Amino acid sequence: MRKIVHIDMDCFYAAIEERENPSLRGKPVGVGGSTRRGVLTTANYEARKFGCRSAMPVFKALQLCPQLVMVPVRFDLYRGVSAQVRAIFGRFTEKIEPLSLDEAYLDLSHLNSSAESVAREIRNQIREELRITASAGIGPNKLIAKIASEWKKPDGQHEIRPEDVDAFMKALPVGKLWGVGGKMRERLEKLGVKTCGDLQRFDKIEMARGFGKWGLELWELSRGIDHREVETTRIRKSISTENTFRENIASLEDLNPPLHAMLDELAGDVARYENREIRSLVVKMKFADFTRTTAEKAHAVLDAEIFEGLLKEAWQRGGGKPVRLLGVGVRFRDPEDREQMELL
After folding, report:
1. Which of these is catalytic: 46, 103, 159, 265?
2. What's the CA gap between 247 and 257, in Å, rounded?
3. Tens digits of pLDDT across the chain (344 residues)
4. What sign does the dihedral 7-8-9-10 (CA atoms) show?
5. Catalytic: 94?
6. Alpha-carbon Rg of the chain, whole angstroms?
7. How far apart are CA 13 and CA 132, in angstroms?
8. Is the Cβ–Cβ distance between 165 and 224 less than 8 Å?
9. How far is CA 89 from CA 96, 130, 194, 307, in A?
10. Do 60 and 38 form a contact (C-beta atoms < 8 A)?
11. From CA 109, how far away is CA 1, in angstroms rounded?
């Protein structure tokens, strides 16, 4: 039986800024663009109480929270703290799969200690040594662990034991599953589905007929089934970041602010792979009807203008349909291709 932990730092960028400048504590803080035309990369919990959230234009965040304190992004600082967090993970296991600067999966199956006690010790060491907090979810697979990590945020942890998975999933709101946003929830509610237990009434054939390949995936997700391993040694072929919007975005102009917010995050992630060469830039888009498209262009460096062009190309392919998910990323060149070229 696997013991998987999902560690998620609490408002990571904002927490670091508060640590570096204690006068910010207790105030609503947003990290991101310094002008009103910029976007939020993240917001602390005080700001979230007013409705501020990542990828939101700064002018809108200031309308919701006029007292919001904006702090510019400092990715070099965040990457350094992220490396310190991962060093703490490494004291307990080598089976670590980073997802971004502020979250990772850990496989603790090989340890005799309980996953609950190890996760608590990891969080204690992060708090004591780095003066920031983390939340953790513990479960028998990655799906369950990630859902559990949201249960007791901030600075908490929640464990879902294997024998409790069935009951937990039956009561879980279907919107907690990845890929199930507002429009999908509406479609499911029309079928009488509000919880994963409701969704479990449908067999695989019904799910495939109603939702295609995505329906088969939902059939497994609603039952807490996830066979993915914690991948530690794979050669990354690509890096991406994406955002499923709470409300579908209906214009190309309104997609530009979240695009640039994600590009800032992507730049921080790509910097960790400075020894890898970029092969191409990618924009992924999923529309309200769950169709999707990917626009890609060969280019060796991050270029905001090229990403804007790819955004427009993807948007036009959708014929103006509202967008529910936007993603940006890069594909890396295969190191073996480089070695073969040098031999030739």
Report:
1. 103
2. 15
3. 899 999 999 999 999 999 999 999 999 999 987 666 677 888 999 999 999 988 788 888 999 999 999 999 888 899 899 999 999 999 999 999 988 889 999 999 999 999 999 999 999 999 999 999 999 999 999 999 999 999 999 999 999 999 999 999 999 999 898 878 777 888 889 889 999 999 999 999 998 988 888 889 899 999 999 999 998 866 678 888 888 787 889 999 999 988 988 898 888 788 777 778 999 999 999 998 878 899 999 998 999 999 999 999 999 999 989 998 899 999 998 765 544 333 33
4. negative
5. no
6. 21
7. 10
8. yes
9. 8, 13, 37, 34
10. no
11. 7
The pTM score is 0.71
What are the structural domains, with CATH classification, of the chain? 6-134 (3.40.1170.60), 166-221 (1.10.150.20), 238-343 (3.30.1490.100)
Residue owning tokens 């994963």: 196
Spell out the SS3 assignment of the chain. CCCEEEEEECCHHHHHHHHHCHHHCCCCEEEECCCCCCEEEEECHHHHCCCCCCCCEHHHHHHHCCCCEEECCCHHHHHHHHHHHHHHHCCCCCCEEEEECCEEEEECCCCCCCHHHHHHHHHHHHHHHHCCCEEEEEECCHHHHHHHHCCCCCCCEEECCHHHHHHHHHHCEHHHCCCCCHHHHHHHHHCCCCEHHHHCCCCHHHHHHHHCHHHHHHHHHCCCCCCCCCCCCCCCCEEEEEEEEEEEECCHHHHHHHHHHHHHHHHHHHHHHCCCCEEEEEEEEEECCCCEEEEEEECCCCCHHHHHHHHHHHHHHCCCCCEEEEEEEEEECCHHHHHHHHHC
Using alpha carbons, select from 291, 286, 293, 297 the residue that is nearest to residue 323.
Answer: 286
Beta bridge partners of 134: 9
Taking the C-alpha atoms of residue 147 and residue 161, their distance in angstroms, rounded to an integer, is: 13
Calpha distance 259→272 (Å, rounded): 21
The half-sphere exposure of 118 on its side-chain side, counting CA atoms within 13 A, is: 22
Q: How far is residue 56 CA from its own chain's centroid?
A: 16
